[in-house]
Amino acid sequence: MNLSFFDQFTSPYLLGIPLILLSVLFPTLLFPTPNNRWVTNRLSTLQLWLLNLITKQLMIPLNKKGHKWALILTSLMILLLTINLLGLLPYTFTPTTQLSMNMALAFPLWLATLLTGLRNQPTTSLGHLLPEGTPTPLIPALIMIETASLLIRPLALGVRLTANLTAGHLLIQLISTATIALLPIMPTISILTALILLLLTILEVAVAMIQAYVFVLLLSLYLQENI
């Protein structure tokens, strides 16, 4: 039975072909393409307002040089947000519960911010490895610690997103299984468990949105340090 709880995190296959790429690209089909009714369509207007709000929040801590990353960061935010929310629907697969995918998103973007800093301001970027006023005997140890903390950033990004979504999905499945099992035995307890399940689902919707925002916000903060 323990294995069945983790079956939801297994990539689906059709005729031996993995469908994870399809599940990643499917959310993009939910967004309409621009046309002559772009502004008069209420749904498109709401989506445009949301895009402007997200972009404004992400670009506030960045200077004008960092605004070149607006399209990348906003697109990533919308992609993660849509995938996380669609993954809460029954009988769906959530690609962002896979550590490999999250690392594939986190590592190249983190590396791009790091290389941007090393190219534009190498002295300032390397200066982050050694805080000002450090005693001389502590310099080698602090450089090693700061280097380790710098290299662990993409891993922290990927693991944070994976762990939060995986834990939420497991909790929902455990409580829903308990609700169904208790229904013929103790209906009252089953109803209370169903209410807890409803509250947990609302919480997971919030977690799905917050984790997508945190993932992109941390990338923007890493970018801020290097421009």
Automatic annotation (TrEMBL):
Signal peptide: none annotated. Belongs to the ATPase A chain family. One of its GO terms (molecular function) is proton-transporting ATP synthase activity, rotational mechanism. NCBIfam families: ATP_synt_6_or_A. It is a multi-pass membrane protein. Component of the ATP synthase complex composed at least of ATP5F1A/subunit alpha, ATP5F1B/subunit beta, ATP5MC1/subunit c (homooctomer), MT-ATP6/subunit a, MT-ATP8/subunit 8, ATP5ME/subunit e, ATP5MF/subunit f, ATP5MG/subunit g, ATP5MK/subunit k, ATP5MJ/subunit j, ATP5F1C/subunit gamma, ATP5F1D/subunit delta, ATP5F1E/subunit epsilon, ATP5PF/subunit F6, ATP5PB/subunit b, ATP5PD/subunit d, ATP5PO/subunit OSCP. It catalyses: H(+)(in) = H(+)(out). The chain crosses the membrane at residues 12-31, 69-89, 101-118, 171-199, 205-223. CDD domains: ATP-synt_Fo_a_6. It comes from the Eukaryota. It comes from Fregata magnificens. GO terms for cellular component: mitochondrial inner membrane; proton-transporting ATP synthase complex. The keyword Ligase does not apply. It is found in: Mitochondrion inner membrane. This is ATP synthase subunit a. Its main location: mitochondrion. Keywords: ATP synthesis, CF(0), Hydrogen ion transport, Ion transport, Membrane, Mitochondrion, Mitochondrion inner membrane, Transmembrane, Transmembrane helix, Transport.
